Amino acid sequence: MNFPTPPIETRYDYYKIIPEFKKFASQYIGKNYLIPDEEKPIVFATIAWMLQDDLVAKEMDFDLQKGILLSGPIGCGKTTLFKLMQKFIGNKNKFGMVSTRQIVSEFMQSGYQILENYSKGNFAHDARKAKVYCFDDLGIETSSKYYGNDCNVMAEILLTRYDLFKEKGLITHLTTNLSAAEIESIYGNRLRSRMREMFNLFGYDQNSTDKRK
């Protein structure tokens, strides 16, 4: 992923927004938030998506009607970036964030209702309201059993959310350490092909530094 060349004019002043974001991020994580040069386009594009900046989206070739699939090695900063977006962007394009491991744990305790909660949504005023989510660390969860029945929890949730994406434009975001081949191996070709429709792929380099060290 690369910056637009030449630079384009948009309704947002990124020369002001990016320093504000870095200052906010440094305060949030409690240390200086460094963005390596090769990762700056990813951070820039993610902010532009959250602001729904159509001019940047066109120049950087991503779709504002799709969610973001943020992939990369362990420790590269995927989860932190989405957590920062939750706080920095405010009410614009709000989303919930939950780890896939937590979802599977809830499923093992409460059963198939959990699949509905994270796809079609919880009941509110006698109707279900689907919610925008970022599912964190797709692939660390395992297939689960409920009363002896095997269930690939995240596959079921994502397939239902795909239907809602097609019907109503429901947005989903993901972070994962998995490659495309690994996603297909774990979740099947059917889901992988639908994920291509649902997500913009923003990928960190496999040699990205572990920022937790």
TrEMBL record:
Q: Which SUPFAM superfamilies match?
A: P-loop containing nucleoside triphosphate hydrolases
Q: Which organism is it from?
A: Cloacibacterium normanense
**What's the protein here called?**
ATPase
Question: What are the TM regions of this chain, as residue ranges?
Answer: none
Q: Which residues form the ATPase dynein-related AAA domain?
A: 68-138
Q: What taxonomic lineage is listed for the species of origin?
A: Bacteria, Pseudomonadati, Bacteroidota, Flavobacteriia, Flavobacteriales
A Pfam family assignment:
AAA_5
- Domain of life here? Bacteria
A GO molecular function annotation here is: ATP binding
